[in-house]
Design goal:
about 475 residues; alpha+beta; Serine Threonine Protein Phosphatase 5, Tetratricopeptide repeat; Cathepsin D, subunit A, domain 1; 6-stranded mixed β-barrel; 12 helices; 23 strands; about 30% strand; disordered N terminus
Length: about 475
């Protein structure tokens, strides 16, 4: 790595020119007999004073001390001092910027990328924000792609053609749902007969109907079901946003008494809460939930810690299922009998069409946000108090959702770890019969562009009984 970063050199040059043009500098030069050391001291003092009154408080101030350490090339010490400064002022773009430079000089590229993104987040459009963005364009291909996509989308006439408009080619590396558990592999829709996603179903037990009861923990909207993996009991989270049959962690394998995977054969997968990548392995198991049994079905095991494994789309493929919150049950039906759902108010039943994206097993509905429709993923595994989770500020901007400068910060968790989001509110959301006003939204701090699908969670449709009719591609809602 180079000893200096171009962004830092540009900043130094700017400071130097400002000093050379100042009246104080001219006075010092006009005084004969002054030593070079005095001139140097004056320049250093003036450079620090130009950083603002809070930063010119001397060695006791974390930022000023951090700048001194950075200029002395004590980058680790500087990074620590800038973090101390951020504890006192968590929205100080200068501390974030120099912390990013320090991490960059230490070769901690991923940490530097995260810190540069924080500069862009707290000071968008500012001088430092633009500098940080310029560095990110070189360091982080995903950031560059999101910026380029945002620029292209700015001139597009219809917002609903922008959000979630991934091509089939770009979906070959699929990402996960609410927990961000991406499979890293393409999957296709199966008929539920001879094969599904390339695997034989001959050994599976697939009854015409099955009822599975779920429970909630601590008053949450999470639907926890009892299942069995290789004959041993395991509680799992029912998650329509998870494409594969299951998402487990290494600790779950240990709990089940199963051997650990070969670490030499690890792949990488990302999550919805941050841009970190974690090791993962495909693992073959026998899985049972209720009377449905899948034998030799692949799950994904991740090198992280999750409290509960996810039960995903591949497990119940070929079934229509009804979520009954009142009875706390999920009713699976294999044969797609004709439904008598109507859109009449008298029946209190409403049908909403959806698109099923085979790449990633996505149930996609058109959600009306502030008068415009946008494609979002119907995600029962998204169980936070937010109705909608966005991939960054660009999506919020397209939807007309303002993010206050003092927006509260919340922590979200995913397959690759935790991330932070800003809390914002949409004036109105509508899907079929369901309307919400001043709806709570989570906006990720890590900008991932506009093409990824936002997640529509249970906070929006909780309180409705609904049937996901995979045959007719309809979600039937009924008032509880």
């Amino acid at each position: 790595m180079n000893a200096t970063i171009p962004v830092n050199e540009a900043e130094k040059e700017k400071d130097r020119l400002e000093i050379l043009q100042s009246s104080e500098y001219k006075k010092i030069r006009s005084k004969k007999g002054k030593s070079k050391s005095l001139l140097l001291s004056a320049l250093i003092l003036m450079s620090l004073s130009a950083l603002g009154p809070q930063q010119a408080m001397g060695a006791k101030n974390g930022y000023a001390a951090g700048v001194d350490a950075y200029r002395a090339k004590n980058y680790q010490q500087a990074l620590t001092l800038f973090y101390d400064a951020l504890k006192a002022n968590p929205r100080d773009e200068k501390s974030y910027y120099y912390a990013a430079l320090s991490a960059h000089q230490l070769g901690q590229t991923q940490k530097a990328i995260t810190l540069y993104k924080r500069v862009v987040l707290v000071a968008p459009g500012s001088d430092l924000g633009n500098k940080a963005s310029a560095v990110l364009m070189k360091l982080d291909p995903s950031y560059a792609a999101s910026v380029n996509a945002a620029a292209a989308s700015a001139s597009a006439p219809h917002s609903d053609a922008i959000i979630g408009s991934m091509s089939n080619a770009s979906q070959k590396r699929i990402s996960g749902g609410s927990a961000g558990a991406g499979s890293g592999r393409s999957s296709r829709t199966g008929s539920g007969n001879s094969s599904e996603s390339g695997r034989s179903t001959a050994r599976d037990t697939l009854p015409q109907q099955a009822r599975v009861f779920f429970k909630n923990s601590g008053g949450s909207t999470r639907m926890l079901v009892d299942g069995r993996v290789n004959g041993r009991s395991m509680v799992m989270l029912f998650d329509t946003g998870a494409p594969l049959a299951g998402y487990f962690s290494l600790s779950h394998l240990k709990e089940l008494g199963l051997p650990q995977p070969d670490r030499r054969k690890a792949e990488k997968v990302g999550g919805s809460s941050n841009s970190q990548k974690v090791d993962c392995w495909e693992y073959m198991v026998d899985m049972q939930v209720g009377s449905i049994v899948r034998r030799g079905i692949p799950i994904l095991v991740l090198d992280n810690e999750r409290d509960t494994p996810l039960l995903g789309q591949e497990f119940w493929k070929g079934y229509t299922y009804t979520i009954d919150y009142g009875g706390k049950s999920i009713h699976f039906t294999k044969d797609q009998a004709s439904s008598n759902y109507t859109n009449t108010a008298s029946s209190s039943r409403y049908s909403v069409p959806f698109t099923f994206r085979e790449q990633g097993n996505r149930i996609v509905v058109d959600l009306e946000v502030n008068g415009k429709k946008f494609p979002v993923m119907f995600d029962t595994g998204h169980t936070t108090d937010a109705t909608l989770a966005l991939n960054g500020r660009e999506q919020a901007k397209l939807m007309g959702i303002p993010i206050p400068d003092d927006a509260a910060v919340t922590t979200t968790s995913g397959a690759s770890g935790s991330g932070t989001s800003r809390i914002a509110y949409a004036r109105k959301m509508k899907l079929g019969p369901i309307e919400q006003f001043n709806a709570r939204v989570h906006v990720s701090d890590e900008e991932r562009g506009t093409k990824g699908l936002p997640l529509l969670g249970q906070a929006f449709y909780h309180g409705w009984q609904y049937t996901i009719d995979m045959d007719k591609k309809l979600i039937h809602f009924k008032r509880r």
